[in-house]
Design a protein that fits this description.
Keywords: Signal. By secondary structure, this protein is of the alpha+beta class. It is built from 3 helices and 4 strands.
Length: about 120
């Protein structure tokens, strides 16, 4: 994902937002509550915006963005980013939504991504 233009990142962030809004609107009340909680956390500064994480991943990782989720896990907001690695392997990277610290990484040949330190929990 290196050497990719800023406009691509902006377009990707907008696409994620456009795709997620109708899906969120069609879910049950519990899901609406989760979306409201995520928006409130972003507004309060408890989590950082997705586009900033995508910029970080683009800068640091060799791979192509596939999808993302934002969820609560043991009281923490976690961004789950799926990437398609250089050899076609799917990797899932979990980042703390407060500071973008890499919390967990799963997948094959993670070393080829160049952004997963050895010893990262899986």
């Amino acid at each position: 994902m290196r050497n990719t233009s800023t406009s691509w990142r902006v377009a990707l962030a907008l696409l994620c937002a456009i795709v997620m809004l109708p899906v969120a609107a069609s879910r049950a009340d519990d899901d609406d509550d989760d979306m409201d909680a995520a928006r409130a956390a972003l507004a309060a500064g408890d989590i950082r915006p997705l586009d900033a994480l995508l910029a970080k991943v683009e800068r640091e990782c060799r791979g192509r963005f596939v999808e993302m989720e934002l969820e609560r896990d043991d009281g923490l907001w976690i961004y789950e980013i799926k990437l398609l690695g250089p050899r076609g392997d799917v990797a899932e990277l979990e980042y703390d939504a407060r500071d973008f610290a890499l919390v967990e990484a799963e997948g094959r040949r993670l070393d080829l991504l160049d952004c997963v330190p050895p010893g990262t929990p899986d």
